[in-house]
């Protein structure tokens, strides 16, 4: 099983690359789980509603007033991705109501963290030949919704389903050691990424992604990739775990024991 997280910034531009990667993985009998973001769509809905929310270390500080707009935006993104895959003949099961991620209240109003993952329905959908498409917001045990960072949700879901490979599809070619100098990391290590993170090398928006990459690599995910979702070669290379580096992207090799595709 592989997990593919589609960044909200792509706004549909990764459709063909995602479809081909999912199709090829399924041809090899590898189940695929898709997790998506929705940041730009959320921002637009909040602007239209006259709501301004600050970001702290790349995380949107969500209020109770903003939650319905967050949920609606993510449901819209979920529907579009699900319909896109279905149009290309890929059977899907949409999880758009926060039923997969268990949210944990960490005292930041309605910005939560992942407290757990309900994997049974996800595994059942994948085992039946469907592609689970998961909106990343979560609900607590009382059913209250919380905004969850999509990168963190994807990393936790990859851990929970014991995925050997996790892909982050975004709107840049990978993780930059130095963005201004266009110094792109290709094959990297947990030690290098952690050092760069601690040194303040990453912009605010990249901090949650790098944190998620490190979390996944430290919790059983064999390979974690960050690639441009519009680059079909890069997405396919990452989905198949090709190590010949014919395509651009950042790859981090994590745990390598006891995992298969």
From TrEMBL:
The keyword Kinase applies. One of its GO terms (molecular function) is ATP binding. It catalyses: N-acetyl-L-glutamate + ATP = N-acetyl-L-glutamyl 5-phosphate + ADP. Pathway: Amino-acid biosynthesis; L-arginine biosynthesis; N(2)-acetyl-L-ornithine from L-glutamate: step 2/4. GO terms for biological process: L-arginine biosynthetic process. GO terms for cellular component: cytoplasm. Pfam families: AA_kinase. It comes from the Bacteria. Keywords: Amino-acid biosynthesis, Arginine biosynthesis, ATP-binding, Kinase, Nucleotide-binding, Transferase. Its EC number is 2.7.2.8. Gene3D superfamilies: Acetylglutamate kinase-like (3.40.1160.10). Residues 1-228 form the Aspartate/glutamate/uridylate kinase domain. This is acetylglutamate kinase. It comes from Alicyclobacillus vulcanalis.
């Amino acid at each position: 099983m592989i997990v593919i997280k589609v960044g909200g910034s792509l706004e549909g531009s990764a459709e063909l690359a995602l479809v081909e990667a999912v199709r090829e993985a399924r041809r090899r009998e590898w189940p695929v789980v898709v997790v998506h973001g929705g940041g730009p769509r959320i921002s637009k809905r909040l602007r239209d509603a006259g709501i301004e929310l600050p970001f702290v270390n790349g995380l949107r500080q969500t209020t109770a007033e903003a939650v319905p707009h967050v949920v609606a935006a993510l449901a819209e993104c979920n529907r579009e991705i699900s319909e896109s895959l279905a149009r290309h003949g890929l059977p899907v099961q949409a999880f758009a109501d926060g039923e997969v991620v268990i949210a944990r209240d960490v005292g930041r109003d309605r910005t939560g963290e992942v407290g757990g993952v309900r994997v049974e329905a996800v595994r059942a959908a994948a085992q039946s030949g469907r592609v689970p498409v998961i909106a990343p917001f979560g609900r607590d045990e009382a059913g209250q919704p919380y905004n969850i960072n999509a990168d963190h949700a994807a990393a936790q879901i990859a851990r929970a389903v014991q995925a050997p490979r996790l892909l982050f599809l975004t709107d840049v070619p990978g993780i930059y050691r130095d963005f201004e100098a266009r110094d792109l990391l290709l094959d990297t290590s947990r030690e290098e990424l952690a050092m760069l993170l601690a040194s303040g090398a990453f912009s605010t928006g990249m901090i949650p992604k790098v944190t998620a990459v490190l979390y996944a690599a430290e919790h059983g995910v064999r390979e974690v990739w960050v690639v441009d979702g519009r680059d079909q070669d890069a997405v396919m290379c990452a989905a198949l775990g090709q190590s010949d580096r014919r395509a651009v992207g950042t790859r981090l090799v994590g745990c390598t024991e006891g995992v298969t595709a």
